[in-house]
UniProtKB/TrEMBL annotation:
The protein's name: TIGR01244 family sulfur transferase
Annotated GO MF terms: transferase activity
Keywords annotated in UniProt: Transferase
Residue ranges of domain Rhodanese in the record: 79-123
InterPro entries: BLH_phosphatase-like, Prot-tyrosine_phosphatase-like, Rhodanese-like_dom
Gene3D superfamilies: Protein tyrosine phosphatase superfamily
Length: 140
């Protein structure tokens, strides 16, 4: 597991495993967001299998699958709602990229667009192609 903080309260990581969950809880995370569709994973890593372990460890678990190339405004709103619930959030997908994209879109208008693009870039996530959409959401 490679946790990459985008803010003090929101981090992304590639796919988590059941053995990662105690480490996530010990790091102070209160919510885990699954941005990875089940169809990309074997059954033991499906959202509901991980939900049980995350909730047993005392954290909230949010299922918000983001399909590559088919991101929806419902995904953005669900991510924003989970972020706004408070606490320290860890979002995961295959690489952390989709969790970064949906974070940037959910924070459009709350942070400068340049920051929403530059912050994930420090981990290799290239969000420049979303600049126009971030600006439109910020103004809209």
């Amino acid at each position: 597991m490679d946790i990459r903080p985008l803010t003090d309260s929101y981090s992304v990581t590639p796919q988590i495993l059941p053995e990662d969950i105690p480490v996530i809880a010990a790091a102070g995370y209160t919510t885990v967001i699954c941005n990875r569709p089940d169809g990309e994973n074997p059954p033991d890593l499906h959202a509901e299998a991980l939900r049980r372990a995350v909730e047993t460890a005392g954290m909230a678990f949010v299922v918000n699958p983001v399909v590559g190339g088919a991101l929806t405004m419902e995904n953005v709103e669900a991510q924003r709602e989970a972020i706004d619930a408070g606490g320290k959030v860890l979002a995961y997908c295959a690489s952390g990229n989709r969790s970064s994209v949906v974070w940037a879109l959910a924070n459009a208008g709350r942070q400068p667009t340049n920051d929403l693009i530059a912050t994930p870039a420090q981990y290799g996530y290239q969000l420049g192609q979303f600049r126009e959409l971030i600006d439109r959401l910020a103004n809209g």
